[in-house]
């Protein structure tokens, strides 16, 4: 027996999965719960990315695996935002639509900021690694030059 709760766990991509019907353009409780459910998933993913970025930026975990997980979660967040935007296209209540549009816009801005933070970290990390390699190369050349 289902409780009526929509719990998206796998996003199938545009045009697939549980997309609300546009027939009649009437707002149904199922469409409303889809907005609520996808918004909750998106907020949860955004929070998880924020925590993962904090681990990365504080140096607690700078592994490639964590960076890959962050990227995967950012992609999931982008898909959830796209789904929310599609659901909003079905929204007929202008008052409710305005509230949801603000929520989705804020999520999109959060997502962009999180992606930018990951890119900045990766750029800093790459630059630091490149500089360390250059220093090692210079020291090796200096030591190989016979300076005693």
Question: Can you walk through the features of this model?
Answer:
- This protein is an all-alpha fold.
- It is built from 3 helices and no strands.
- It is rod-shaped, with a radius of gyration of 23 Å.
Strand content: under 5%
- Sheet with most strands: none
| Average of pLDDT | 81
Through-space gap between termini? 82 Å
Count all strands and give the number: 0
Helix content: over 70%
Overall geometric form? rod-shaped
Q: SSE order in H/E notation?
A: HHH
Unreliable stretches: 1-27
What's the alpha carbon Rg, rounded to whole Å?
23 Å
Quick synopsis:
By secondary structure, this protein is an all-alpha fold. The chain has helices spanning 29-58, 64-89, 94-144.
Keywords summarizing the entry:
mainly alpha; disordered N terminus; 72% helix; 3 helices; single chain; rod-shaped; 148 residues
Secondary structure blueprint with pairings:
Elements: H1 29-58, H2 64-89, H3 94-144
Helix pairs in contact: 1-2, 1-3, 2-3
